[in-house]
Amino acid sequence: MKDVTTHPAFRNTARSFARIYDLKRSPEHIDAMSYEENGKRYSTWYLLPRTKDDLRKRSEAHRRVAEWSYGLLGRSQDHVSTFVSGMRMMPEMFEEGRKGFGDNLVSYYEHMRDNDIFACYLVITPQSARDPEIYKRQTSRNAALQVVAEDDKGIYLSGIKMLGTSAVFSDEAWIGNILPLAPEQKALSITCSVKMNAPGLQIWVRKSYEQHSISKIDNYFSSQFDETDAVLVMDRTFVPWERVFVMDNAQLSRDIYFKTPAHIMGNHQSMTRFAEKLKLVNGVAHKAAELSGVGHMLPVQQTLGRLMAGEAGLLGMIAGQVEQPETLPNGYMHVNRRFLYAALHWTSNHYAEIAEKVREMLSAGPFQIPADASVFEDAELAAIYEANWSAIGAGASDRFKFIKMSWDLLGSDYAGRHTQYERFYGGPPFLNDMYNYTWAPWAERRAVIDQILADMELPKPLATAAE
To answer: How far, rounded to the nearest angstrom, does the alpha carbon of residue 155 sit from its chain's CA centroid?
Structure first.
C-alpha cells in the first residue's frame, strides 16, 4: 500500500480526517480551533494553558473535532498532540534520563505544532515481554521493541510495539511505555518519535471494516470512521538522537505521562470525545422509542431518563475538570486530575451497558429488513417493501436507513470494536480503579473522621465507693 487516500480499506476514513483539517481552518471555526503566538497561528490543541480561558478554549476545540466525527475517531489529530503538549509543560523531567533529552522534547513539540503533525502512539509492550521472569528467560530475539544498536547519529530499533490506532493515517508515531516496566527491562524503555515511512518499519493492520462496508446507506459509520488499529514491526529502524526522549530508564519512561499533565490532558480529549458519542447513542435511543410507538410508556421514559442522566453527569464531570483546574509551580494549568479519572472510570465501565440498553430498544428490527439497500434498485421490490415495512411515524425507507445506521453503531463488528475500545483504551479496568484510589485526597477525608472521633469523648469511669 502506498496511498491511504485511494486504498479501499482506508480512503473514506482518510477523507474524514482530512475534513477535520478543512473545518478547523474554515472562517466559522478558526477562532476556536487556533491561537496566535508570535504572529503565527497554531492549532488549539498545542496551546499551553495558563488560565481557565485557555483550558476552555482547548476543551471546546476537542468538542468540535469530536462533533465532526460523532465521537467515533478516538485518536483524532488532537489526541497525541495533547499528550506531547502536556509533557512540554514539564520538559525538565526528561533531563533526569539524559542531558539534552528535555531540549529534544521541546524541539519535537515545536515541530508538531509548526507542521500540524498528525501522530499516533504505541505505548504498550507485547504481552510476551510484560512478565519480567518470562522476559529474562528469553534467549532468542525478543519481540518487544528495543534499541539494538546506536552510533553518533542515532539509534536503531527492532521488535514490535502496540497499539497504533490511526497509525495508517499518521505522519509519525510516538513510541513509549505507559505500563510499568521492571528495572531489569530498561532496554524496553526507549521513548522516541519515528516517521511512518522510515525504512525497516512495517504497519500490521487489523481487518478493515471500511473495506467490507457495502455502502454509506448500509454501513454509515464503518464506511467513514474506521480509524483502524495496528502493530508496528521494526527491523533496525533508524531514529536520530534529536527524536529520542527517554532511554535506559524504566521508571522515567512511565513517569513522563503521569508526573506531567500528559495523561490527564490527553484523556480530557478522550472524555470530550466520548460525550459526543454518547449524545449520538442517546439520540438513537429516543428515535428507536418513537419509531416503535413506545415512547409514551413510563418504563421506556424511565430508561431514556437514565440514559440522559448519565450524559448530564459526564458533561458535568468534563466541565468540572476545566472549572476547577490545577496549577503547576511554573504557572501552567491543567484540568482537574480527580474529576478526569472519575470520568474515565465511568465511561470505561458503562459504555457496554449503555449500548446494550439501546440495542434492546431496537428490538428485533435489525433482523426484519432486507440484507442491503439494493432492494431499492428494483422498482417492484421497493414498492412491496414500502407497502409492508412501514412503522408508526416513519415510512419503510426511513425505517430502513435508521435501523441500518443504528445497527452499524451498536450491533455490527464495527460496533463490537467500539465497545471493546471504550472498555480498554484508558488501560485495564483495575488501572482506572487505581488512578482514582491513588489521587484521592485520603488525608482530608480521614482528617474529618479523626476530628469527629476526637470530639466523641467517652464517659470517664465513675468513682468507686472505696475511692
So the answer is: 29
Residue 81 lies in a domain: yes
Residue 266 main-chain phi, psi, to 5 deg: -65, -40
Tell me how far the alpha carbon of residue 114 is from its chain's centroid.
23
Amino acid at 174: W
Q: Above 90 in pLDDT, residue 45?
A: yes
Q: Return the number of other C-beta atoms located less than 10 Å from residue 31's C-beta.
A: 11
User: What is the domain count for the chain?
Assistant: 2
Report CA 53 to chain centroid distance, whole Å: 23
Which residues does residue 150 pair with via DSSP β-bridges, in sequence order? Answer: 155
Is 278 found in the same domain as 237? no
Q: What whole-number percentage of the chain has pLDDT above 70?
A: 95
The answer for residues whose C-beta is within 8 angstroms of residue 41's C-beta and 6 or more apart is 30, 34, 35
Beta-strand pair 119-122/172-175: parallel
Q: How far is CA 270 from the centre of its chain?
A: 4
Helix (H) or strand (E) holding 103: helix 101-115
The CATH number covering residue 310 comes to 1.20.140.10
One domain for residues 231 and 192: yes
Residues 275, 229 share a domain: no
DSSP 8-state code for residue 408: H
* Total residue length of the chain: 467
> Tell me, what's the pLDDT at 24?
97
Residue 117 lies in a domain: yes
For residues 425 and 74, the answer to whether their CB atoms sit within 8 Å is yes
Domain that holds residue 251: 11-258
Instruction: Tell me the C-alpha to C-alpha distance, in Å, between residue 39 and each of 42, 165, 287.
Output: 10, 34, 48
Q: What single-letter DSSP state applies at residue 138?
A: -
Per the listing, cell 407497502 goes with 387
Give the count of beta carbons closer than 10 Å to the beta carbon of residue 146: 20
Q: Give the burial class of 403: count Cβ atoms within 10 A of its Cβ; 0-12 exposed, 13-18 middle, 19 or more buried.
A: buried
Q: Which of 318, 336, 319 is nearest to 327 (CA)?
A: 336
Q: What is the pLDDT of residues 153-166, one digit of tens each?
A: 999 999 999 999 99
Average pLDDT, the chain: 93
**235 and 271 housed in the same domain:** no
Would the CA dihedral through 345, 346, 347, 348 be positive or negative? positive
Q: Which amino acid is at 281?
A: V
For 76-109, what is each residue's pLDDT tens digit?
A: 999 999 999 999 999 999 999 889 999 999 999 9
Distance (Å, whole) CA 50 – CA 45: 14
Instruction: Indicate the pTM of the whole model.
Output: 0.93
Closest CA to 117 of 195, 30, 29: 195
Residues 190 and 145: beta-carbon distance below 8 Å: yes
